[in-house]
Design goal:
By secondary structure, the protein is mainly α. It folds into two domains: 5-228, Fic-like fold; 255-320, Winged helix-like DNA-binding domain superfamily/Winged helix DNA-binding domain (Arc Repressor Mutant, subunit A), CATH 1.10.10.10. The protein is 61% helix and 2% strand. The protein contains 14 helices and three strands. The chain has helices spanning 5-22, 29-37, 47-64, 72-82, 123-135, 142-156, 163-177, 189-194, 196-209, 213-249, 255-266, 272-279, 283-295, 313-320, and strands at 269-270, 300-301, 310-311. Strands 1-3-2 form a three-stranded antiparallel β-sheet. A hairpin with an 8-residue loop joins β2 (300-301) and β3 (310-311). α3 (47-64) runs parallel beside α7 (163-177), α6 (142-156) runs antiparallel to α7 (163-177) and α11 (255-266) packs across α13 (283-295). The radius of gyration is 21 Å and the shape is elongated. It starts with a helix and ends with a helix.
Length: 324
């Protein structure tokens, strides 16, 4: 693609929504995008902020990879961002757990637990082993190594909360660190969320039976499916971008209109204030550009009372809608 960066932000936000949904949040992609462009940042349930933290954690993880290997320090950094100001913020964000935990029904006792992670006192040593494993040059395909890493992180369960999301963040960070991905555009949470119970069962079965192959096949099937999805989704976004550029160039649209078009492909929700910052123009000048895009059918004005918000509805649907 001529500009894959147009896809990074919408793809990451879709991943953040789906990964967080696995853990019980109800925020949709539109909820997240509206939260990001809102001046008040009102979020009564807290779900949109949780999803936004996932986005911030991935962005920080990408930055940290420039200076750090995949390491406990990086894991803790991701966790601190993920849990900042949301549910679980009182449970030691960025710090390893200090007590025994278990996974089971809410309010259930350890005797009824579905899975009991290792005792807290051995977590540092287990993470040190994991850190060595993900950074050594092992004789196995990187996707296999990635699947083993994800399983091991989830089993260690190093934090009081947020382990599943950190573990899924590490999948794409590992593939980027190993240069399997040159651009972070492959995410597995859509696959895991669609087959949530099987995802849990496959992870648990490794611990119960010692059989790795069912988990590895499940993981690799997810990579295949989401790779094909990413390719198809990328092509649809690219084709729409080219269509809109041709549409705007026919009446010789201004350079600002084309610049704002690119910004919309990074985030389909836009306010005049954000457009003004993007273009370096006044609020009224930015609103004029948005109105020209509206006249061309690129964006529509959201109804209802409140701030002036435009949405590139067709683009949003291309990002969000199922491929198949």
């Amino acid at each position: 693609m001529p500009n894959p960066h147009l896809l990074i932000r919408p793809f990451l936000r879709r991943e953040a929504v789906l990964s967080s949904k696995i853990e019980g949040t109800q925020a949709s992609l539109s909820d997240l995008l509206l939260y990001e462009v809102s001046d008040t940042k009102r979020d009564p349930s807290g779900d949109a902020r949780e999803v936004r933290n996932y986005v911030r954690a991935m962005e920080q993880g990408q930055e940290m990879l420039h200076e750090l290997p995949l390491s406990v320090r990086l894991f803790n950094g991701l966790h601190a961002v993920l849990m900042e100001g949301v549910r679980g913020r009182d449970r030691r964000p960025g710090e390893l757990r200090t007590e025994q935990v278990w996974i089971g029904s809410e309010g259930g006792s350890i005797s009824d637990a579905r899975f009991i992670p290792p005792p807290a006192q051995v977590v540092p040593d287990l993470l040190a082993d994991l850190e060595r494993f993900v950074n050594e040059d092992v004789e196995m395909p990187p996707l296999i190594q990635c699947a083993l890493m994800h399983y091991q992180f989830e089993v260690i369960h190093p934090y009081f909360d947020g382990n599943g999301r950190v573990g899924r963040l590490l999948i794409v960070l590992f593939l980027c660190a190993r240069q399997v991905l040159t651009t972070p555009l492959l995410y597995l949470s859509a696959y895991f969320e669609h087959r949530r119970q099987e995802y849990y069962d496959r992870l648990l079965d490794v611990s119960v039976t010692g059989e790795w192959e069912p988990w590895l096949r499940f993981f690799l099937d997810g990579v295949e499916q989401q790779s094909l999805d990413a390719i198809a989704r990328s092509r649809r976004v690219r084709d729409l971008h080219e269509q809109y550029r041709r549409l705007l160039q026919q009446p010789r649209a201004s350079g600002n209109a084309l610049r704002l078009l690119d910004a919309l492909f990074e985030s389909p929700y836009m306010t005049p204030a954000i457009a003004a910052r993007t273009l370096g123009v006044t609020w009224h000048g930015a609103k004029g550009v948005l109105e020209r895009l509206r006249a061309a059918g690129v964006v529509e004005l959201l109804g209802g009372r409140g701030p002036t918000i435009y949405v590139a509805r067709t683009l949003f649907n291309v990002i969000e809608a199922p491929v198949a």
